């Protein structure tokens, strides 16, 4: 295969990934409104298309054509760049995420590190947006976000160390393959503490309830994106939803066995083997996405200091204990 | 180094009047150090309503709709309070049936108001689902209001000497059905909130008002009772049919946000109990006092000198006329959902109040905000505003 061939294929793969991702994000907003609608005893979108199915498309069209208001005293360059940073970071993480056997854009050795590293860059977008808006609410939102991201990034990273120890690799495909070697087929059971820490940290990383402090609309109006409108606002929104998908995919790959299902299940119900891996993968991802929505419908919001306390005093020690336990088992087995 | 220290300045943030969580048009100026509040100054006065002044140019009956607009979440209680003050002024006896109807309606208004409170308070802390659940139940009561009074929010239903129109059986049946179902609904809110760790963390030990402070600040209603002080106008100075129904006054212990929340949740159940008893005990009879005051309106206000208009009563009851001569000023209060709502009226024997002054609980409660907020975090400000339950329409009359 020559270089040109590889480049063309990669571009094609990226385009397909991008298209599918965008469709997912658009309909995640629809699904969220429907799920929360049912929790809150209302219908959700019902007007545009059958059962409001065309609502996301209508929303996109509306947001694109809306007037792009930029306040007069903002730092214009940074103000414009900030949403792009968030979005680019969120999109880039998907480059290494495998959705099925050999279905991945770039199968690199340090996949897990890459995802965590790139996801962290998204914080810059938020801080830049908060600072450049020249608004106190936005500024406070940006600062909160910075502190929150840094704290929870640590917990998130540490919670995955157990998985890395067990899989002996940073490569996401290998992590999945390693899981299918066990009869139970997923790291969820031995790594239950790690998974718990990961899920909590994942909610905080993506700024979702009960940790949506950077945008806390009742305290900081809308936090870092209070001055944004139209398409720029939607870019932040897009980034948030992409981050949700990214974290869900990571949880699926690292703890739920990715596109595989437990060998014991296949042994007892052989017909399950014929279901394509990507279906299992997506089902597992959707479960996590549903978890995001469900929590949003149920929980109030933590206070800022409580959020920090949970991050530093509960999650990080728990993650460290998990690493210790995993190491001991690893050493003796 | 000193130069550097000088550069650090406190961040001053305006919370309100357009902020999504500063109920109505409250404006709080917060001086922040990080997220900690160093100073909090509440500003009110964006409504420019002048209800008290306006009422001096209106007859007593004409003033009644103005009282609706003060605390628009419990307009029925405001009306009752005003009517009781005027009744006390001229010494009129309200028929029993009207008393029960008023009590029933006032408690419905209390439930409505507390429902809006739990809805917005939960929303402020970030729980949106409770908001929609509470609105669903409030809708039922508003429809009942509409059935009897023709209005949903600003009802203007009670009259001096009774109520405007009678309630029918259909209304009573529906209300009875509501009292059957409502406790289950309250349990539903409690399952969402009561054992929710996040909620407890946000409310327990936050925004504490001691009993002594609460009395010194002149707090009333659930805000006072949350601190464990037993004071309820309905028990201490019973009006309407409150002495004929059985109910308890829920009290808190610690005076924090959670206790105030708990007090109101328990009040839901007590109000429900009162409504049930009112329906069961509702006597037959007239709904408006026979010799009810009917103020003759001046035929053309321009032709008549203001001072010449005197009380003219269709009834020839000498006793009432003597009463009018005797009373020149009066204060009457009722237990509104937010606390003690008092009306002070000075009467100069004309058909209009010479001076009217309203003791609005929201106004008094807004004063305690700086005490609650200083030293706490930005997020607590929102929880505190919610917990003292103010309506700015009443605050800035």
TrEMBL record, chain A:
Pfam families: NADHdh. Its EC number is 7.1.1.-. GO terms for cellular component: plasma membrane. InterPro entries: NADH_UbQ_OxRdtase_su1/FPO, NADH_UbQ_OxRdtase_su1_CS. Keywords: Cell membrane, Membrane, NAD, Quinone, Translocase, Transmembrane, Transmembrane helix, Ubiquinone. GO terms for biological process: aerobic respiration. The chain crosses the membrane at residues 6-30, 81-99, 111-131, 152-170, 182-204, 235-258, 278-295, 307-329. It is an enzyme of class 7 (translocase). It is a multi-pass membrane protein. GO terms for molecular function: NADH dehydrogenase activity; oxidoreductase activity, acting on NAD(P)H, quinone or similar compound as acceptor; quinone binding. Its main location: membrane. Belongs to the complex I subunit 1 family. The keyword NAD applies. It is found in: Cell membrane; Membrane. NDH-1 is composed of 14 different subunits. Subunits NuoA, H, J, K, L, M, N constitute the membrane sector of the complex. This is NADH-quinone oxidoreductase subunit H. It catalyses: a quinone + NADH + 5 H(+)(in) = a quinol + NAD(+) + 4 H(+)(out). The gene is nuoH. NDH-1 shuttles electrons from NADH, via FMN and iron-sulfur (Fe-S) centers, to quinones in the respiratory chain. The immediate electron acceptor for the enzyme in this species is believed to be ubiquinone. Couples the redox reaction to proton translocation (for every two electrons transferred, four hydrogen ions are translocated across the cytoplasmic membrane), and thus conserves the redox energy in a proton gradient. This subunit may bind ubiquinone.
TrEMBL record, chain B:
InterPro entries: NADH_Q_OxRdtase_suD, NDH1_su_D/H, NiFe-Hase_large. The keyword Membrane applies. One of its GO terms (cellular component) is plasma membrane. This is NADH-quinone oxidoreductase subunit D. Keywords: Cell membrane, Membrane, NAD, Quinone, Translocase, Transmembrane, Transmembrane helix, Transport, Ubiquinone. NDH-1 is composed of 14 different subunits. Subunits NuoB, C, D, E, F, and G constitute the peripheral sector of the complex. Signal peptide: none annotated. It is a peripheral membrane protein. HAMAP family: NDH1_NuoD (MF_01358). Its EC number is 7.1.1.-. It comes from Thermodesulfovibrio aggregans. Pfam families: Complex1_49kDa (PF00346). It catalyses: a quinone + NADH + 5 H(+)(in) = a quinol + NAD(+) + 4 H(+)(out). It is an enzyme of class 7 (translocase). Belongs to the complex I 49 kDa subunit family.
